[in-house]
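Work Package 4 report. The design task specified in the project plan requires that, given a folded chain encoded as structure tokens, an amino acid be chosen for each position. We show below one input record used in the internal validation round.
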């Protein structure tokens, strides 16, 4: 990759976004304006020793609006220990679900409240609050006329006690708010991903300690379709190609793996890099399909090695080939969108090499 000119590269940096300990992004268009929200874990505390789980978590999620091809900060949502912001709509109503893992600046409280905001009268107003424990990510999806919101949460750390419900769970919309629908036996949830193929509805759940799962809708609830008995699960992505159904699974502690549905099981096809992967972004470009894999850390939380490089893979028909690497710094998420005729990729960076939070995130032009 070092011999490529900038004009040959898929990713061209166009803007840095001022973030601190950034964890995830959400984007949407509203009244002809493109918006972006960034969940942030913490800010650095002057004089405090660097640590990836330290810092001041009583912060906010900045909101950015796009103007002239650039994002300008325009407000913020309260979001302590921010891990995720999820935008979705139900019947023309607009919502933002925000999740934070903790409050405080040491000691921390992992028993917090997650807030569902609704756009009303020109502002984001709290609509519903949830008692959560070490909340990581929301995922909104629908099956027919039923609307669901899944929460990945929990940790198993000595000395940390759950006062609020500790396992990951799924909520269903009742017409005015979300109510508890189904709990999952996962103790350290990270993410959910939904996909539909024909009449089959799949919901993948990634967990750090309890093993990850692909669930399938049986018409009344989600039941286990396949288990992945390993630690370090972070996320999944599904797609269809060449008449087959494919899945990519990221494991922070091991390989990122491509699977193909073969009859009644997902069968391993290819490894796409080793430990350190955190998140994925699938992009259907004019010239093919691409997979962005962002890398966070290797090692341990006590002695982390901050990953400084992430990858873009190109789909080749039966697997992926590395197309490009790009510099990141403890990257945690990637999100792609079209604005006019331009495709963008926004990547959150969360840690510097010396474990400081004050690292900018990056907006790229993605020439695919």
């Amino acid at each position: 990759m070092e011999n490529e000119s900038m004009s040959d590269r898929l990713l061209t940096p166009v803007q840095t976004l001022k973030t601190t300990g950034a964890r995830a992004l959400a984007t949407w268009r509203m009244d002809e304006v493109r918006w972006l929200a960034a969940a942030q874990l913490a800010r650095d505390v002057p004089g405090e020793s660097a640590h990836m789980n330290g810092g001041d978590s009583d912060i906010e999620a900045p909101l950015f609006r796009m103007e002239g091809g650039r994002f300008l900060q325009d407000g913020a949502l309260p979001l302590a220990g921010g891990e995720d912001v999820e935008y979705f709509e139900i019947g023309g109503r607009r919502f933002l679900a925000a999740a934070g893992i903790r409050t405080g600046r040491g000691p921390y409280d992992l028993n917090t409240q997650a807030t569902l905001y609704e756009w009303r009268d020109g502002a984001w107003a709290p609509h519903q609050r949830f008692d959560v424990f070490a909340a990581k990510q929301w995922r909104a999806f629908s099956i027919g006329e039923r609307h669901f919101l899944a929460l990945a949460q929990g940790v198993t750390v000595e000395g940390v006690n759950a006062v609020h419900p500790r396992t990951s769970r799924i909520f269903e919309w009742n017409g005015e708010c979300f109510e508890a629908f189904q709990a999952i036996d996962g103790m350290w949830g990270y993410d959910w991903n939904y996909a539909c193929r024909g009449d089959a509805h799949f919901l993948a759940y990634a967990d750090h300690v309890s093993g990850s799962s692909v669930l399938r809708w049986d018409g009344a609830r989600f039941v286990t379709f396949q288990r992945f008995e390993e630690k370090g699960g972070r996320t999944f992505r599904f797609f269809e190609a060449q008449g087959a159904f494919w899945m990519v699974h990221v494991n922070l502690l091991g390989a990122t793996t491509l699977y193909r549905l073969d009859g009644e099981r997902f069968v391993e096809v290819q490894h796409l890099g080793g430990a350190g992967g955190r998140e994925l972004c699938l992009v259907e470009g004019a010239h093919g399909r691409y997979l962005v894999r962002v890398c966070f850390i290797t090692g341990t939380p006590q002695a982390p090695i901050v990953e400084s490089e992430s990858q873009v893979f190109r789909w080749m028909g039966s697997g992926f080939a590395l197309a490009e690497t790009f510099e990141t710094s403890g990257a945690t998420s990637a999100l792609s969108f079209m604005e006019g005729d331009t495709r963008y990729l926004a990547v959150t960076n969360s840690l510097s090499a010396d474990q400081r939070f004050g690292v900018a995130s990056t907006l790229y032009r993605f020439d695919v």
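The chain has one domain: 6-366. Validation will be extended to a larger panel in the next phase.
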